[in-house]
Amino acid sequence: MTPNSQKPTLKMEYLPVLQELQKIKRPIEARELSRKLHLGYEKLMSGAIYSLQEQKLAKFTEREEVLLHLTEEGKEYVKKGLPERQIFALFQEKGYKEIKVSEFAKSVEMELGFNKKLFFIGLSHMKKNKWVVTSKATGEETIFVYNEDAPKSSLEEILQIYGDNQVIPLSSISKPLQEYLPQLLKRKLITREKVTIRMVELTPEGYMIKPNEINLIEEEIQMISSDMIKSGEWKESINKLKKYDVEIEGPKIYAGKYHPMTIIKNQVREVFHSMGFQEIQGPIIELAFYNFDSLYQPQDHPAREMHDTFYLKHPKTGKLPKKSYVETIRSIHENGGDTGSTGWRYKWSSEIAKKLLLRTHTTATTLRYLAKVGLEKPQLPIKVFCIDRVFRNEKVDRTHLAELQQIDGIIIGENVTLSDLIGQITEFYKRMGFKKVITRPGFFPYTEPSMEVSVYSEELGAWLEMGGSGIFRPEVTYAWGIKHPVRVLAWGLGLERLAMLKLKRDDIRDLYQSKISWLREVSY
Fold first, then answer.
1. How deeply is 186 buried, as exposed, middle or buried, from its count of CB atoms within 10 A (0-12, 13-18, 19+)?
2. CATH architecture, range 262-521
3. For residue 315, is the peptide bond before it cis, meaning its omega torsion is within 30 degrees of 0?
4. What is the DSSP string of 283-297?
5. What residue ranges do the domains of the chain occupy?
6. Distance (Å, rounded) from C-alpha 269 to C-alpha 233?
7. Rounded CA separation 215/223 (Å)
8. End-to-end CA distance of the chain
9. Which of these, 414, 460, 412, 411, lies nearest to 434 by C-alpha position?
10. pLDDT tens for each residue of 257-308
11. Does the model's pTM come out above 0.90?
12. CATH match of 72-189 with 1.10.10
């Protein structure tokens, strides 16, 4: 028999945990094991599992997981079916091929207890699923059956996965079906929760060991006191002493630190400050006047539409700057003013220019700074930059965000040239750690000439575009009294593109919906 000193030591109260794991013979999620044993989760992990792991009888792994919880309404629909399914079932049960909407709404309220709002939600989804169609050809809106088979919708397929469960992991849903989760979230049928999943399992030794091969103790003694040494009590308690392995690494301590994006932003700031630039800031809620009109963008340009820009509802409009600036911008748009241009040849509207929006680029901030320079006429040259949030009406995916950050900058000076601009941008990226930087001709509506900027990624072995730059056109600068020989060099660069390369991420969402495991690994 193995001497007591060589036996694994375990508290008596932790033996049921070992026996339960031996019984189920598979890895189990820690919370599920906690419920099975009616043992507190914290006590299970920091007590039993930690002790078993120390004795090399068990181990656990952890990963981040998104859990999808059914709401009370969601639980009801898992049992009875979505409103659209219940309504269509009634439609078929009554043997209808067509029926007036108003008449059917009353029938649904009587039979199913659905109010008008819920009825029209269900009807909308029935039409979306192409189970029925509606028409006003007869004078009053009428429902017609379109597909009697009414195949399961994607939302129904997701709810079917729940079965008798109230919570399922996101990973249990196929990628194609995950595209429909926003609809269930919007309908408040499910909620999302991000948790750390800990899977517990026994080692081969843990599966094989028997209770008589374990040194079971009622209570473990953490340390020997001076009184125990004097009295000799330590000799009697030798088997209860906690075993320590001095070669085992201590637990990792995850100290607080800055978010990786904050670190990158600070690096960008340091580089620009070292190059003689000053930082400027501007409002997030901006006038269309500064966001679009001052950049010589016509008022019928597609980028101004709602599908690209977030406009405010309350208040809808703001106050324009002094009248002389407004009239100068008007004349530049309508006939070119004194810039030598012919303008856009249309009737410019101050009402459109008054609209308030979430700025789509930080170039609006640099335009406000140009107005300040034109008014105060400070000593040239001037070099300023801005790093701040901008907003685009984009569908969020691995390469797009609706809210992102832009690095904008300008240099104002006499007879500055495109070569100066190339030199400044190249120097910036080299100081940020990129050895190869190239510029090539591009087109932007408010700069001429214009350049696109790319850097070479050693890890990817490819050139990646980082943003645009150029010299502001007279139509942009003349309104503020900045005229030849003074020129304005300008650029707008993507912070997230830079961060993805520096942090080696291939999904832009990782930068803001960051996994704890990744944040712990990122260096200071």
1. exposed
2. 2-Layer Sandwich (3.30)
3. yes
4. -SEEEHHHHTGGGT-
5. 4-57+203-240, 72-189, 262-521
6. 64
7. 18
8. 52
9. 460
10. 889 999 999 999 999 999 999 999 999 999 999 999 999 999 988 888 877 8
11. no
12. yes
